[in-house]
Specification:
Extracellular Endonuclease, Chain A; six-stranded antiparallel beta sheet; elongated; alpha+beta; two-stranded antiparallel sheet; single chain
Length: 286
């Protein structure tokens, strides 16, 4: 062995001995709720509550009727949330979800809703390509209004990263709520949530919970302050699974849309008796 080879060998061995721990070693649960010791998160991921429980780099409770995640558990660490991969991957349909209950990116086209990262955000998971890509599963995406997605969620996700840096490691839960008559969008007819909540904890002394409405009501003066959305954790937990918020009321837009449909029906229907009924309804709406 020549001198150059000997020096390289010595340097490599020294690096192996004294190199800082890898990011992977900072994780405890690796996003698997079954490995978590945070008991308040466990009831959200049971066969009684979830039609499917999907586990990869984070855990999803998936509802077939709503065609939506209802709860997502993630683990984030201080060293990883400060890393950043600029290039974003495309959204993809998650084939782990049973075929009849999957959603696609096209379900959101021209609906007015954003494809919102639900529990696992890009910014908290883009330290690694595999983890980043997983967040773009449509099983982790929900319809969010522009202000809910781009402002309210951004404020809470930023706070998540700040707390991960402060405490070193967090275990977090995101849950969704619906009203008694949720709007349905896309070919899949997925249900639009009325509200969301996030719960952050280090598994020890730190615990915070937040609640936001899925609407575009937003105060620019303090909307980026996470404290604006703070809520009692017991209250948030008790609300889950109940009807939260009011369904959309009848509007002039709904009336105009119905009149347009009646016009189409009247033009195509040959049964004059039915045409007469449709015409009467149309005139009553005006």
């Amino acid at each position: 062995m020549n001198l150059k080879t000997s020096l390289v060998t010595i340097l490599f061995c020294g690096w192996m001995l004294y190199a800082p721990p890898t990011f992977a070693s900072d994780f405890v649960t690796k996003g698997d709720i079954r490995k978590s010791t945070v008991e308040m998160f466990k009831p959200f991921f049971t066969p009684e509550k979830c039609d499917q429980i999907l586990v990869d780099t984070f855990t999803i409770c998936y509802d077939h009727e709503r065609k939506s995640p209802t709860a997502v558990y993630v683990e984030v660490t201080g060293p990883t949330v400060i890393e950043d991969i600029d290039k974003r991957p495309p959204f993809f349909t998650d084939k782990r979800v049973e075929k009849d209950y999957r959603t696609t990116s096209k379900d959101y086209t021209n609906t007015g809703y954003d494809r919102g990262h639900f529990g696992a955000s890009d910014a908290s998971h883009d330290w690694d390509k595999k983890h980043q890509k997983a967040t773009y599963s449509m099983a982790n995406i929900v319809p969010q209004t522009p202000f809910a997605n781009r402002y309210k969620f951004i404020a809470l996700e930023k706070h998540e990263r700040e707390m991960a840096v402060k405490y070193g490691r967090l275990e977090n839960l995101t849950i969704a709520f619906w009203n008694n008559r949720p709007k349905k969008i896309g070919k899949s007819q997925l249900h639009v949530p009325s509200a969301f909540a996030k719960m952050y904890t280090d598994g020890k002394d730190y615990k915070e919970c937040f609640f936001i409405w899925n609407n575009d009501k937003y105060d620019k003066s303090n909307g980026q302050d996470p404290n604006k959305y703070k809520q009692n954790c017991d209250v948030v937990t008790a609300m889950w699974g109940t009807q939260v918020g009011e369904a959309d009321k009848w509007s002039m837009k709904d009336r105009d849309a119905l009149i347009d449909l009646l016009d189409k029906y009247i033009e195509s229907e040959k049964n004059q008796s039915k045409v007469g009924l449709a015409t009467s309804l149309k005139n009553a709406l005006k």
